[in-house]
Amino acid sequence: MKYEGMIIRPPSEAGSLLLQVTVGCSHNKCSFCGTYRDVRFRIKSFQEIEEDIVEAAGYGRIKRVFLCDGDALMLPQKKLVPIFESIRENIRGVERIGLYGNAKSIMRKAPDELRQLRELGLGIVYLGVETGNGEILRKINKGVDYETMVKAGRRIKEAGITLSCTVLLGIGGTEMSAVHAMDTARILTDIDPDYVGALTVMLIPGTPLHDDYIAGRFKLPDTFGYLEELGIMVAHSDFTDCFFTSNHASNYLPIRARMPGQKDEIVHLIHRVITSNDRRILRPEFMRAL
């Protein structure tokens, strides 16, 4: 397999074949992200991609494939369809293809195009929501507003594709902590995704958010401030059927819960942890990572 630059994938794709179809991210302006800061976005040629697919065919049966990098859904349909078809024709046993999709790239796809990709094997799309607060979305240069984010998430679900959303604890700083949590609960309720992953913001040197932190323009919540946000998000989100997690390496309190069934249980757990003020039950700082 021929990889260029840093390759990232969701934690749930740890066992997947990672097939790089683009280099970098088509947006690459989020103030908190340093993954592709110095990488020029490009779409790999079909020849490059198919060579990797043919190589992977020799690995035996592969259940899952994840298309890298940051926004594979940005590819025009005429380029994406041959990739999906080649995966189906060459690799045995593929049950699901997944990829990252930002709200802009999702909205560029007509509903019929998304359904076509689903029929060709697209089983899950990972959408970085980060926050439901409009002011924070602008500050972090997400490139879309609340309404567009909701429309994008719903478009994926309406196409019959599983939707996994990520949100960022702490991205509003101390100043907007409570409103960030409440508005994020609201946007998650409006989207109603199948999965939610709550991560904790990590400051990366060289990013605009880190610069703001150093300059004193941005202040992070403390450990229990993050948990307050998590508790608000869980308590005020209403899901039809969602698996909610905060078990990423960046989080202090690992949580895995099926919503709405375990909602009250998780809210009570978070409250007990906060009121106990006992750091011993939290992930140690030295074990936290991106």
Topology:
Layout: E1 17-20, E2 22-23, E3 42-43, H1 46-57, E4 64-68, H2 77-90, E5 96-100, H3 103-108, H4 111-119, E6 122-130, H5 134-139, H6 146-158, E7 162-169, H7 177-191, E8 195-200, H8 208-214, H9 223-236, E9 242-245, E10 256-259, H10 263-276
Parallel strand pairs: 1-4, 4-5, 5-6, 6-7, 7-8, 8-9
Antiparallel strand pairs: 2-3, 9-10
Summary tags:
290 residues, alpha/beta, TIM Barrel, eight-stranded mixed β-sheet, two-stranded antiparallel sheet, 10 helices, globular
Helix content: 25-40%
Mean pLDDT: 96
Name of the top-level CATH class: Alpha Beta
Query: What count of helical segments does DSSP give?
Result: 10
Q: Note the beta-strand portion.
A: 15-25%
CATH fold descriptor: TIM Barrel
Rg: 19 Å
- The end-to-end distance, rounded to whole angstroms, is 24 Å
CATH H-tier superfamily:
Aldolase class I
Number of domains: 1
User: Strand tally, please?
Assistant: 10
CATH second-level architecture: Alpha-Beta Barrel
